[in-house]
Amino acid sequence: MAGNTFGEAFKVTTWGESHGTAIGAVIDGCPPGLLIDQEDINREMARRRPGQGGASSPRKEPDRVEILSGIFTPQGEEMPRTTGTPISLAIFNKDAHSKSYDDLREIFRPGHGDKTYLAKYGIRDHRGGGRASARETAARVAAGAIAKQLLKRHGIEVCAYTLALGGVRIRTCDLSTILDNRFFCPDPVAARQMEARVSEVHAQGDTLGGIVEIRATCPEGLGEPVFDKLDASLAHALMSIGAVKGVEIGAGFAVADMLGSENNDAIGPGGFLGNNAGGMLAGISNGEEVVIRVAVKPIPSISREQKTVNLANEEVAIRVGGRHDISAIPRIIPVCEAMVRLTLADFLLRDMAVRRNMQAWI
Amino acid sequence: MAGNTFGEAFKVTTWGESHGTAIGAVIDGCPPGLLIDQEDINREMARRRPGQGGASSPRKEPDRVEILSGIFTPQGEEMPRTTGTPISLAIFNKDAHSKSYDDLREIFRPGHGDKTYLAKYGIRDHRGGGRASARETAARVAAGAIAKQLLKRHGIEVCAYTLALGGVRIRTCDLSTILDNRFFCPDPVAARQMEARVSEVHAQGDTLGGIVEIRATCPEGLGEPVFDKLDASLAHALMSIGAVKGVEIGAGFAVADMLGSENNDAIGPGGFLGNNAGGMLAGISNGEEVVIRVAVKPIPSISREQKTVNLANEEVAIRVGGRHDISAIPRIIPVCEAMVRLTLADFLLRDMAVRRNMQAWI
Amino acid sequence: MAGNTFGEAFKVTTWGESHGTAIGAVIDGCPPGLLIDQEDINREMARRRPGQGGASSPRKEPDRVEILSGIFTPQGEEMPRTTGTPISLAIFNKDAHSKSYDDLREIFRPGHGDKTYLAKYGIRDHRGGGRASARETAARVAAGAIAKQLLKRHGIEVCAYTLALGGVRIRTCDLSTILDNRFFCPDPVAARQMEARVSEVHAQGDTLGGIVEIRATCPEGLGEPVFDKLDASLAHALMSIGAVKGVEIGAGFAVADMLGSENNDAIGPGGFLGNNAGGMLAGISNGEEVVIRVAVKPIPSISREQKTVNLANEEVAIRVGGRHDISAIPRIIPVCEAMVRLTLADFLLRDMAVRRNMQAWI
Amino acid sequence: MAGNTFGEAFKVTTWGESHGTAIGAVIDGCPPGLLIDQEDINREMARRRPGQGGASSPRKEPDRVEILSGIFTPQGEEMPRTTGTPISLAIFNKDAHSKSYDDLREIFRPGHGDKTYLAKYGIRDHRGGGRASARETAARVAAGAIAKQLLKRHGIEVCAYTLALGGVRIRTCDLSTILDNRFFCPDPVAARQMEARVSEVHAQGDTLGGIVEIRATCPEGLGEPVFDKLDASLAHALMSIGAVKGVEIGAGFAVADMLGSENNDAIGPGGFLGNNAGGMLAGISNGEEVVIRVAVKPIPSISREQKTVNLANEEVAIRVGGRHDISAIPRIIPVCEAMVRLTLADFLLRDMAVRRNMQAWI
Predict the structure, then answer these.
(1) Mean pLDDT value of segment D149-172
(2) What is the number of helices (H) and of strands (E) in chain A?
(3) Residue B164: its chain A contacts at CB < 8 A?
(4) Does the ipTM surpass 0.85?
């Protein structure tokens, strides 16, 4: 009933609060025999780390992932492999100044979960947002790095990048350039405009929203209709990231203005002749590229004054100081990739029983 | 692993193919004692029925729901009540002309799941789309009508209506007028323009997309972070409807262009002073109205010629005739309501153990 | 949360009350392409049917299973195949005399669930025990007959028989004789003694308990430690049958008196040199025969007078008349087989993702 | 699909290998507000610790449980409370001599999961049995200690003790004496005989089996028919403990020899007049004491020579040395209690939605 687990076959449970002892994840269902490259996990973690530039907070989090179980180095090999048993991942919290949150104990920050967590649970770890902190997504990135190893073996790759930030949208899209700027933006000109926009808004004590696009190569046949359609589960996965307020697949909201004859992707002997569908039909991947976009809301922690109430329901003004990002972009990008990877890994395993059995009779 | 079940506490499993013997649903977890008003279920079914006007196909489906289990009329009462055991709902198919689908046995219709179902399962019930038919949603509406009874007891109401159809968007929004036109459109002027647009496109043998908005009253505290956030599960629920290609909550994709100071809903002693959040924060309902929009793609069955391939992967042309709708709107409206109801009923029950236990210590 | 579903990959949900419109099951997760032999399903149902002899009630239930979805006969084939979509099975109730249960509306029968169902749900379908009736197991047998088709393709066979009835235990065990008597008893001499015991107790208006043993061939590697060990899930499956009060695997309760050196099965190059383990070690099948025994309590409906209370909690005497069996044996035998089949089918599918993935690296 | 999670509402996932970095558990679904008494957790852990006497190995495991998340000490309180978020428990391994297992890398120990784990996963952490080690149950005891806090608030108590060990059965049963001997045996005379039997068998390098009985007070109404009956889930819970080969409820296997008139518990105005049912009818608790017995196999690690094979499938002889217990009793006793507590906590929460809703209409 509680909702801290994602996936059915490749099942991930995350735990931990922003300023507790540690955060982490347990993966149950990872197939045995996968090589685990600790360096690759660290690379993924580094991409989510704060302090990567002006749009992100200068706070340093080393975020070293410890693998507490589920791997074993066979005699004569150098790298550990998964054993098929649960993989426990932990990241111990270090750079956490709980004291600096003391003044938030009795006040509800607008745009945060302070009020709803207290309403639901009757008790609240107010330090840094507790469980509702974006810090929780570090555990998702760690788990996603394991899923990445599984997907790689099946030729599945996932890549996310920035489509819009603070009102600046890309006009060209060259994915080979996304590592050239800190926004993972595929339009170098737009990237420079985004930088300017970030500086401008930073000076105002405000924050920015944007749009992230995720693409994935994907074999035909993944997805479990009618409720666990590939699109439905991807929407679930991505909307479970705190800052995401919208998800669209392929043509997305643009379909509202299209005719059937425009929107339908014709089919040729070599495959589909378009990809308005975004890589899936009737909830099952069709072999084309999976294309998803998510709307990212501005970070709610702003240093401008806002109206709110305290525990006694008295009107108060608040300015949220501290080391906060100007936008969830770019740090949300590896989180989006992780959630798409966890979804695809889950569907890959769920699909295997079906296909393997099919081979027996065809 | 297979994905035909929705919900954890109020759990619905649907079954059935468009042209099989019947379609239906089993609800496991419905609390006992709810009065079941068969007439109300029929009213919900009638709203989803085709033949309601030009935008919908003239095919008649009586769609009478039979309740095969899980209810009992206590001595001295007149209406049955739920017993806490599984509620089995069946709708027997009557007006199904399988023959008319014979020419689709060997061809993949663009925009449909024909190709992906065959890729996944290696076998395909081609008659009317089989399991991938929109007819499957009738079972969801039937189950949603039971959820409606549960929600009513807790003061939760759900209402969906048309925001855009075929490029026509509403400019005013008066929910008291949505029953005055067949599109459940809250702007009478736009509704007339939608009629005109439907006639125009119908004449061209083409189809139309649109946008549906769903609102729900909802008590504080529903939603199960971090993965089963209320928004995440609503996105899952709605994206699992075949025609839906995008879901947004509250301000949705508009957040991409907003500043934090614009997007944050300030809080006053009487509640939130805005609702960009769409009724939830950190995945938990905040007591404000839940607001969701979904993008609905044009019906893929068009009578204009399209390019596709047959089972032998040879290029062929296809015109999909038959009794098809011009748009999934308005028939998708009760389906959207049903999916939101199923989600809220599930979260209501999932929340109860938590709250009840809380009362013991506070 | 409600518990009417069994299995994770081969997932079965049963529904229905003894004297409602129908009972049935939905199977979600059955692989596509399996041939469905309706006659074989009927044969399984016939074995569970009452009226097979003195120990069973003379009530006739034709129990014809209707398959409402999930199968399709490909062009040019004669028998339907599963399509990978949910298989809906229904058995409509015919020979149900609700009136004869009117006098049980206000009284709790000892040994039945009358009192506990009312305590839990606050409402009770008293007719024939409602959902708690053994009739519910007919849906399990129907679902088990589908699982049987899947298992057959993987060389897995399940067989149950009577080890003891009314104090008579077998002294020889020749499985080739179990079809020669109506108790599926592998000792012809004991079978005759069981007949005599049944007649004797029938005359006294009393009922009998017994022990059923189930054996299954099973490939190595099924079972999902640590909680879903093969033994744990088999115990769950079998203990979920109303009449079962004990389950033991392999040597079972006899291990309490054994030394480690006696109980351990030594291993040789050709396999295990004993089977005290009953076919599984550490929760995973070891390739040896799976051996399970269950204790079956006497049918609680006896015509001898018993003390009980009514709804007003007043002391009353009760004699349960009607068409009742003397023992759950032999009708429980196909039910035990069905539950073991459902368990093994589930574990077979759960194991496939693991093994298939392994092949990629070994 | 992988099976390392137990429970639906009070959901526990364990992880960890005997000689890995750590073992642990994540509890998702524990209600908020429960006081967590770290001392009480330690007391439970101490009862499972080896080195408690001759029947147990002298190995010392401090087994200190660290709570990494899910608790918070509200201002002004002294003890932490649960927050409703996942509770992560970890026990770091200290006293683990992996080297001593080097000679087991290539050999399958009889009675252990060595062969089946390798067959299933294709890779095996051979050190101390890896995941299949009884050490995994320490994580269950830790999680069970949290469940104990929840149950205490609802007046539910669980107690386990030894009924038989090495062929010695109790003849009297005085539960007030179970803390007077190290076997938690309620018959002081039998306890002394058990001591003698343990010494005798220890000298022979052999091991012993036994029977444990568990009793629990339990309110009416827990259990979720038809598959998640209380008895079925308890059988699942207990049979998932490695050493358990049989489970029986109430009269258990004795029902095989009973008449219906003997086995049925008559009902009086003050409750049931017997408890052959062991506290549940039709899978729902009836308010009487829950009574369960489990058969515990002898520890398979014996120092007497046994026949087995190595990885090359060659016949070899093995003597398993090291610090092993003579019997799983008494260390299995807190594990049995933990599994029953986890089951009852789960059913308590699953039942709450039902009951709370009922109050609305009755």
Answers:
(1) 96
(2) 7, 18
(3) 256-257
(4) yes
